[in-house]
Fold these 2 entries.
Entry 1:
Amino acid sequence: MSVGEILFSFKGRIDLGTFWVAHFSVIIFAVMLLGLIIEIGGLIPLTGDPNLLLVAPLIAPMVIILGVSIWMSLAIFTKRWHDIGWSGWMNLTLAIPLVGFISPLFLALLPGKAEPNKYGEALWDGFED
């Protein structure tokens, strides 16, 4: 599976290690880009009330970065749900208070199924007994 498929496609499965690497890469990517934009925004001299004409061009890239980051995270989470054998619709649990905090932990700790399922072949064959 290519990096593009891992980050943008909602099809297939990824194992636990790929999940960790991909998810934290997305977080680091988003934080770095958002930090850069905020730093650039800090270079704009604002006196008194912020001048919307100076700040507005910074809002669009931030919204785009956040949107792409959310898309990539949902794609990664979906493939992880598939690895466990569950539907990607389980991402809706992220919107439920309290469960939304537990759900990613569940994905980050629960090993996937070694056997093929309706979402595809496993990327690994599990732990040896």
Note: Confidence is low (pLDDT under 50) at residues 125-129.
Entry 2:
Amino acid sequence: VIDRSNIKLEIWERGAGYTLSSGTSSCAAASIVCRLGLCDKQITAHMPGGKIKILLDDQWGVTMEGGVSKVFEASLVPEFLEEIKM
């Protein structure tokens, strides 16, 4: 927690490792710090990959707003898709 409206995160995702940013993780962290009374319901999550704004409503619903960027591109061979259908 930086202050009542800002948190700083570094994220380790199971199966993926260190991740520059994650909306899901940021929303979860914002919900927790707000629920603990450490932050207000409008929070900016700061991560190495950027920042997002998170708004929590009175029923603990979450709205997230921020930019996106492509970090990976891939091509799948048809054989890979056939394996998935099995």
Note: The radius of gyration is 17 Å.
